[in-house]
């Protein structure tokens, strides 16, 4: 049994005082013979035995009273209580759940506001000379201060400044850091307070680790208290913006684009009257705001909003849903790359006096710019896609300037003949083009030699092939040609998944020969097969190279080898559109991220310094980032051992940008950071019985509210036996007095 003041046990030595009085302080007398006393001897002996019993019982009661008094002063406590004496110093660690479910309203206050009030009550209940350390925790822990752990006023100011993030709940990081922080204190007693809405998913995310940390706290006699912030019986009406899609495959200027917004009810009850609105570059598009009458639990609803794309560049899109009980997941950000022109370079052999369809680039050109070249030249000139064709032997590095995507269509690489195939200088620059974010599409054909391609474009060369090319495959027959298999396409594929519904046209795409894409070779690591044939051979493979991507078609994109892959415009046009949209979209610096992700940008030209522009408040007014908070970042490094600019300061959803010092967003990379939707997968709070089952014991759980301070004080003192010992002492003294009176004698 632990004692809060063990030195007081030495007071039990006072029990020797009544013993000394009893045995050594007796009345001294000289016996004198007297005849009548002989007659009374027998009576005296009988009376003496009774008096000795009474005296010894009184002695025992008085000794026990002194022992109880010493025990009370030593303040015994239960083994299960970590604690400290009610007035002894404590090393306290306060952990705040800052996941965005803490922003849900619970009556007049949010859960985080209730947590702050409860934390101040905990500080007021701490004994003098106690220390305080404060942590914020969602799926990661962050030490907040105070600078002086004994400065409670500073701690209270810090508590009031805590804000929610866009992260999801995970209690393990917070418990781990809090336990380590408590050990750095000097007080004999340690206490950890976790202020949270006790979301069940936060315990389930890493349940074995959470249980182990709670057990470690028990073993180290560290008091662990969960402060429940919010009514566990209250159900939060909640919807999340889970997706936004552009119906325009390739966004370009001077167009009005439809956006399909998907909203999901993640709460337990129907939600009514949800308003969905759109912002472009911080400017609200009020006229297209719409309202969803009702969304049932677990159901999704789609609405279509439109916005005008007037300027080229990275446009910032934000979709909002208002009208539920939790704001944290009511927004979705997206960066849209808008272009004046998409410039494509087609490296292929011309038709040279033969029918136009014999040109290696004819089908791709018609899919990119679907106009009649004779009658619609004015439309071609105004169209947002522009093509330039060049023969393989004549293409040079200068042809890549200003291009967004390159097609190699049955284009050989140069070997011994200086007049045949693409020059090495072009191939070298092509690799840099792709690494810088450009798109590359390679189509097979009779002039593509697998050995030469592996040597020049493979891993040992330019590193552009998704997978190595294997030995020639046996040719198929016209009666039983190779065919793409629509069922081999992943529905989530952001290119071919969109053309999967064109199954009838896919079935018509036949060819009698194709290259062997060896996806089982050791050098195939990093490559991805996107489409297979009906006999399970790889037909289309891709690989990300730097910031760009390469798509390789094992079949021709012209009519060689009897290919009908691009012959049907109803299939070739959407396929080409989705390919161009995907590959050119990679060239937009930045992109979409989830809260907490590291933001990384490799600037094309190294500047003296860089800044992170943090999200702006939702005002409905556009800005270029000059009036938003800026945080200095490290320097980038170019050349050998290049080092990009990075920042991990993305805990809140919003629009971020990494720019040169003093620059605008147009000069850097823009990032759309979205909430971690795992937070709203399950908003149910854990019950006390469920928590006991998860942790293996029932921890202390206190409800935040008006009685928090009283509950903390009672918890700190309820483990002591002092009051019960004092009560026993009082009863004992009353019994001793009664017995002394009964015996008819005083001390």
Automatic annotation (TrEMBL):
Q: Which InterPro entries match?
A: Aerotolerance_reg_N, CARDB, Class_I_gatase-like, Double_TM_dom, Ig-like_fold, VWF_A, vWFA_dom_sf
Q: What is this protein called?
A: BatA domain-containing protein
| UniProt organism field | Gemmata algarum
Alphabetically ordered keywords of this record: Membrane, Transmembrane, Transmembrane helix
According to the record, the segments passing through the membrane are 6-25, 57-74, 724-742
Looking up Pfam families in the UniProt record yields:
BatA (PF07584), CARDB (PF07705), VWA_2 (PF13519)
NCBIfam families the UniProt entry points to: two_anch
Q: Which SMART domains match?
A: VWA
Q: Where would I find the VWFA domain in this sequence?
A: 89-259
